[in-house]
Amino acid sequence: MNVLITGGAGYIGAICAEIFTRAGHGVSAYDNLSEGHRAALPPGVRLFEGDILDASAFRRALESSRPDVVAHLAASALVGESMQDPAKYFRNNVSGTQAVLQACVESGVRRVIFSSSCATYGIPVGEQIITETTPQDPINPYGESKRMCERMLDWHRRIHGLEFVAFRFFNAAGATQERGEHHHVETHLIPNVLRVAAGTLERCDVLGGDYPTSDGTCQRDYIHVEDLAEAFKIALSSQALGFFNLGNDTPFSVLEVIRTAERVTGKKIETRMLPRRPGDPPRLVASSARARAELGWRPRHTSLEKIIESAWRWHQSHPRGFA
Fold it and tell me: Which residues does the annotation mark as catalytic?
């Protein structure tokens, strides 16, 4: 099967490319390299450098790569930034996704796998575990943009017959042996905690200590990025369609992540407590029961300690990331 991955040189995209290639699929990547890295791509993966908002460039990539499936991962994905610059998120995520879907329909691509987000749910009312039927009420422009993209997917299915699987995944973390997390501006908790352990960051900021959780800090469901990529691989050929949560069904607080990283690295992690960041829900925990039942997906890396260990190994062997 031939697959074109938008955002294929990014953290999740490059690891999807690794997993797809390992499974014998032909893989191409489409990326503007604003956040991705050419060096992150596995050998044999062809890179088309371009922006998803450049409709003619994307169509040329489709014509050249002739994919059976487009895995659409290109997006702006920082909650805090979306609260400061919502226009960027509606432009890149909503207009960009519309351009991708229109090009797929016009080029005869019949299947799309979409990278959505748990941010579409907002703050669930009265629900401890989020299922796919939990009402969606985003509290930040990033989550709103992803929900709008989901609606576009559904209308393209109804009108054009474009099949799709959309993964609402929770906090991707960890690394494979060769690929890990390297952002130009790092806002994710685990890599920043590990930067403190490595001595390249003075301290880790904890954004809010007064949430209604066990220790006052946000709780999140962490999923190993390789398990995430395995779900995308399964979706390439599965008959299942629609929306699926991906997570480990277990919450960990910010302070629990920091203490686990201290055990893994053997280093003291200095922290600084700051006020809450606008747009952050107190607790997000997935139910992945539907993905397990309909896709046959099973996460293999369910231990937070093992997830952090894999990231720590990669950061130690790649101290400058992909630079």
Answer: 142
